User: What shape does this take?
Amino acid sequence: MRYKRQEAFRYVFGDPIPVLFKLTEVNGSQVESGNGQAHILDLSLKGMRIQSKLDLLHSKQDKIAVSLHFSLHVKEDVEQEFVLNGHLVWKEKHFDGFLYGLTLDIEKEEQQVLIDTLKEMSKTTKK
Assistant: This one.
């Protein structure tokens, strides 16, 4: 597996976070897929690692863009929703499914909301 450990900030979830995703582009062609289900294992400002039962990449040359929708539980009654775009970078067979590495195409404003949310989550999980 490939990880970018030199990243300054990577949040590893104790309990994986459900995420819905849609394929938006495959090898340069726009597509409109249904929702796929996965779980986020870890997340940084530049990417994430997810696990899914779906086999998405058929070859290393495939270029697949996705739209991801998920919520992070910040506090007792507070959820922060995110809709982010990204690209699949790698795939690895894992038990009865697959692990995927994704890069995220994230704006500065979204980055700040994500940082603030993950910092808040970090505070509440340490208690």
Q: What stands out?
A: The beta strands are 10-26, 29-30, 36-44, 47-52, 64-75, 78-94, 97-105.
